[in-house]
Amino acid sequence: MKKTVLILLVLSLIAVSNAQASDNKFMMPIAAAMAANDAPTRLGDTVKFYFGNQPTPKVIKKLGSDTTSQKTNAFAKSNEKACNWVFLSDMLSLQRRAKELGANAVVNIVSNYDHVENSSETEFECHVGAIMAGVAFKADFVTIADQ
Predict the structure, then answer these.
(1) All residues at 6 or more sequence positions from 88 whose CB lies less than 8 Å from its CB, including other chains
(2) What is the pLDDT of residue 146?
(3) How far are the Cα atoms of 13, 36, 110 from residue 89, in angstroms, in the given order?
């Protein structure tokens, strides 16, 4: 009897664990994320960001490409709050890499969750589970002409 109860308990825990490991995809507005969490101040204006096929000033030199894949704690946070936090983490990562390469712009920024590209000028892809949220980007680092 004790063995049966123990087996049922273990199976129940496995079922709950699998249910909590959900992965929900959300398309979130870039403009809202760029305005949240003090992003304008934290990102500054030394590196410009261009999403999807947004027009850019003339590219003088391409310095490289890279990807990001950040996660954040989503527990007890709204999807919007969790996604905006992890978006900012990714943007700060892109900014750091741009500065390392001597770039003044990051262009062709596309969502790249699980290496599946999703290009948009207005939205980014965010995946939220029971306890974690994640955003991934792929982008090019360039020097653009002054405007």
Answers:
(1) 33, 36, 37, 39, 42, 43
(2) 83
(3) 33, 12, 15
| Start-to-end C-alpha separation, the chain | 77
Q: Report how far Cα 40 is from the mean position of its chain's Cα atoms.
A: 17
Q: Which pair of structure tokens corresponds to residue 98?
A: 């741009």
Global pTM value = 0.84
Residue 136 in contact with residue 83, Cβ under 8 Å? no
Residues 88-137: tens digit of each pLDDT: 999 999 999 999 999 999 999 999 999 999 999 999 999 999 899 999 99
What is 22-144's CATH superfamily? Hypothetical protein apc22750. Chain B (3.30.110.70)
